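User: I've been trying to design a sequence by hand for this structure and keep getting stuck. Would you show me what you'd pick, starting by listing the structure so we're on the same page?

Assistant: Good idea, let's start from the same input. This is the structure you sent:
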């Protein structure tokens, strides 16, 4: 074991390298750290080195309070394991590092022990795994088990919160630069007293309480002041003592922002553990339903329209109006504590158009053989979908089976589809580009040949979303034949580059924080069922057939749209079955793995900053375990908007 400082002066320990590390590749391991002198700090990062891959380092973390333990599955190309501390190393006279060095022990686990540890931590996980196996969904059972195993190192929320409160401090704000914060507590009773007491304990002292009935006049007299902030707080909510200092500092350093909100938790009445809500950056559909609450936002009154009625308002609608004048930033820190559940409205959805007024759509279906899948897909599209005019293009990638040729000849002769040949190696990006080039309509639906609708109005739901001129692409809720989730949006950075959100989750299992019922902005959606516009496609150059022939081309396309200022929206109201790449096969040959590694490299070099900081996910949550599992060491906690650049 070697000890030294990294380039930033942080303590660093090499736990394994060379043959010793490669022996651990593709195995479950337990890494125990004994650090009596706090050499590594409270939440060191665990770096898994894999030279020749991009990213070359996978990051994990753990909490070490004199001692700590990490459990995780090692990558199959592991070459070294390094621990990097969160505190500055103290050099000794000989150039080494002062203090007792941590002791690191690594032990491989048997599969049986790994499974047992998962079941002890989450007994209900066994039921889910058995359901997946009973449905012969071995891939799903394996994936969920790995996500659960990776989550064994996730800290207890209360331990994590205490650690963050100990190590995170906002920068001081000079008195001359500290704007006045007007505070309005909404509601009466004992909760009002509790809220005021928490506000009186704030480290930020430039605070003035203003009752709602006195608010309009007070704001009108100072509406143009840039150095005036306003905080809305429901009675019963308490704020961390540092809350106003964190949020005021954010608005001071972002003078064009209209407001800022933070993460929160709900304190249970029976003394049980608090339940955290780790929020995404600004997400208009979630704000509209109340899933993303805006009743503890710090606003600039100068960004509010003069016509707003401040004595009779809905906090979320008020903030939506302020957002027209500037970004509403998200500060990913838990600074708000509720004693009752946040109010959530009935999920909204755009109005469907009558069938006679629905816009025409060009549908592009790449295929190779598997007439059974293609026939079911076309039957669902033509016979079980409410739609307007359809222009269906089947991109035939060297189909060889007689059944497929007969099917294509028949449906082409009947005038239902156009067949475009695409000989050569499978290239999904080229197939889509070819189809869009020949498309007759402005609206383009990319559809896999192994996708079938569950409800007739799915395309109408997607079209309704695309009616919004700020939307560049629309994705759907895709389910496996066994009912588990195949696609509910994409989380950037999960795995290595990206992973489907809530992959292999039961949509009715209650593990989704309510998001599987919510329309929401996401960073990307799968092209297995993606609705977009031809003009947008051409504007950003379509898909990258040279560098991303198979994987991540849809993610790349969506990110290019987002960079132009367009939103990507996922809707749960368009539900289809997806058999996921049944006709193409799996990436399990040496050639396919090399191709995938090359596509990962392209994506990371092109989008590294966004991949590390998905605005639709939370930097306090893990990218290796399941969705919204707590990470010991957060990523970038800077204030962020919902946009990418």
């Amino acid at each position: 074991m070697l000890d030294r400082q990294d380039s930033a002066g942080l303590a660093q320990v090499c736990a394994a390298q060379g043959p010793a590390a490669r022996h651990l590749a593709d195995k479950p391991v337990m890494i125990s750290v004994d650090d009596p002198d706090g050499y590594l700090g409270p939440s060191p990062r665990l770096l898994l080195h894999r030279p020749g891959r991009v990213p070359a380092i996978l990051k994990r973390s753990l909490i070490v309070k004199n001692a700590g333990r990490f459990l995780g599955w090692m990558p199959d190309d592991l070459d070294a394991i390094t621990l990097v501390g969160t505190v500055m190393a103290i050099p000794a006279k000989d150039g080494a590092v002062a203090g007792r060095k941590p002791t690191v022990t690594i032990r491989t686990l048997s599969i049986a022990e790994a499974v047992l540890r998962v079941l002890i931590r989450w007994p209900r996980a066994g039921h889910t795994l058995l359901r997946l196996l009973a449905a012969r969904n071995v891939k799903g059972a394996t994936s969920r088990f790995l996500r659960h195993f990776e989550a064994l190192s996730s800290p207890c929320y209360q331990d994590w919160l205490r650690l963050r409160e100990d190590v995170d401090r906002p920068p001081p704000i000079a008195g001359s630069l500290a704007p006045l914060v007007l505070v309005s507590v909404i509601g009466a009773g004992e909760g009002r007293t509790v809220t005021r007491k928490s506000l009186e304990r704030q480290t930020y002292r430039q605070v003035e309480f203003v009752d709602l009935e006195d608010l309009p006049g007070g704001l009108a007299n100072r509406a143009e002041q840039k150095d005036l902030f306003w905080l809305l707080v429901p009675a019963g909510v308490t704020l961390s003592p540092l809350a106003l200092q964190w949020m005021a500092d954010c608005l001071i350093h972002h003078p064009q922002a209209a407001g800022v909100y933070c993460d929160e938790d709900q304190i249970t009445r029976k003394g049980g553990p608090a339940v955290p809500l780790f929020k995404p950056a600004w997400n208009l559909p979630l704000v509209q339903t109340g899933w993303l609450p805006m009743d503890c936002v710090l606003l600039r009154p100068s960004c509010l329209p003069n016509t707003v009625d401040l004595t009779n308002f809905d906090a979320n609608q008020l903030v939506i109006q302020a957002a027209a004048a500037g970004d509403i930033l998200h500060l990913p820190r838990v600074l708000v504590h509720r004693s009752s559940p946040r109010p959530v409205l009935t999920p909204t959805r755009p109005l469907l158009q009558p069938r006679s007024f629905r816009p025409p759509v060009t549908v592009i279906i790449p295929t190779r053989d598997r007439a059974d899948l293609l026939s079911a897909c076309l039957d669902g599209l033509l016979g079980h979908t409410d739609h307007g005019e359809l222009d269906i293009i089947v991109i035939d990638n060297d189909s060889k089976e007689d059944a497929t040729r007969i099917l294509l000849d028949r449906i082409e002769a009947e005038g239902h589809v156009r067949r475009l040949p695409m000989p050569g190696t499978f290239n999904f990006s080229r197939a889509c580009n070819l189809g869009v080039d020949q498309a007759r309509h402005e609206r383009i639906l990319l559809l896999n040949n192994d996708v079938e609708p569950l409800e007739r109005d799915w395309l109408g739901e997607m079209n309704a979303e695309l009616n919004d001129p700020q939307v560049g692409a629309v994705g759907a809720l895709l389910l496996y034949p066994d009912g588990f989730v195949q696609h509910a949006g994409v989380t950037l950075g999960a795995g290595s580059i990206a992973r489907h959100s809530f992959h292999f989750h039961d949509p009715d299992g209650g593990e989704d924080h309510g998001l599987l019922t919510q329309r929401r902005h996401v960073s990307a959606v799968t092209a297995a069922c993606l609705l977009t516009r031809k003009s947008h496609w051409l504007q950003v150059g379509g898909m990258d057939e040279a560098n991303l022939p198979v994987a991540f081309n849809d993610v790349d396309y969506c990110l290019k749209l987002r960079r132009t200022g367009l939103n990507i929206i996922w809707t749960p109201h368009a539900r289809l079955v997806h058999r996921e790449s049944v006709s193409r096969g799996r990436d399990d040959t040496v050639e396919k793995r090399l191709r995938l590694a090359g596509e990962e490299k392209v994506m990371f070099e092109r989008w590294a900053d966004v991949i590390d900081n998905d605005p639709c996910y939370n930097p306090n949550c893990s990218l290796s375990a399941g969705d919204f599992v707590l990470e010991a060491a957060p990523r970038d906690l800077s204030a962020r908007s919902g946009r990418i650049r």
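That's my pick for every position. To get oriented when you compare it with your attempt: The first strand starts at residue 2 and ends at 5. The first helix runs from residue 19 to 22.
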